[in-house]
Amino acid sequence: MKKILLILSLLLLVAAGALYLLKGKSTYDPAKYSLTVTPENKPFGVGSSIRYTLPDQFGKSHHSSPETRILVFAFTKATGHIIKAAMADKPKGFLEERKAVIIADISKMPTVIQNMFALPDLRKSNYDMLLIYDGKMAERLKEGQATDKVIVMRLENGKVTKIEHADSPEALNELLK
Predict the structure, then answer these.
(1) pLDDT computed for residue 7 by the predictor
(2) Comparing C-alpha atoms, which of 100, 44, 35 is closest to residue 71?
(3) Contact 102, 72 (CB under 8 A)
(4) Tens of pLDDT along 121-150?
(5) Hey, where are the domains in the chain?
(6) Which CATH superfamily is domain 28-175 in?
(7) Confidence of residue 172 (pLDDT cuts 50, 70, 90)
(8) What is the DSSP pairing of strand 100-105 with strand 70-74?
(9) Cross-strand partners of 130
(10) Alpha helix ranges (H) inside 28-133
(11) Is 148 helix (H, G, I), strand (E, B) or coil?
């Protein structure tokens, strides 16, 4: 019995190692992406401006635009689920019509989990979700924010004019009308 358990443990260890080698490498290239919040000496909030180049779930780069009117942020798994539920019945192009962008922080998620579960799930969506892989970028955005809720920021020419929060898919849908 001990030999069988030892063999099973060894096989499990080898399988975990192989899985890590196959799915444990990130394709994120920090040199290609950036995020700048001004003024630099204040928390990101009303009056701040934001400029970014971030990848989406497919690895395509997206740049900030003065036409963007709404930024939606998810900093936790729970807030990501709120966004997913709110967007479940939305047609392709829903966010673009509203000049809205969704940004999710996945910086604390292990690479294996990102590659095996998070990214494949996000790729099933009919909308783009920009991703923050860099913990320093995420910390800059989270400063002073209620990260346990979906954060919805209204923008004019890249400058934050209003901050609202959603704690349910229904509340988020109201804010995206």
Answers:
(1) 77
(2) 100
(3) yes
(4) 999 999 999 999 999 999 999 988 999 999
(5) 28-175
(6) Glutaredoxin (3.40.30.10)
(7) very high
(8) parallel
(9) 56, 103
(10) 77-87, 94-97, 111-113, 119-122
(11) coil
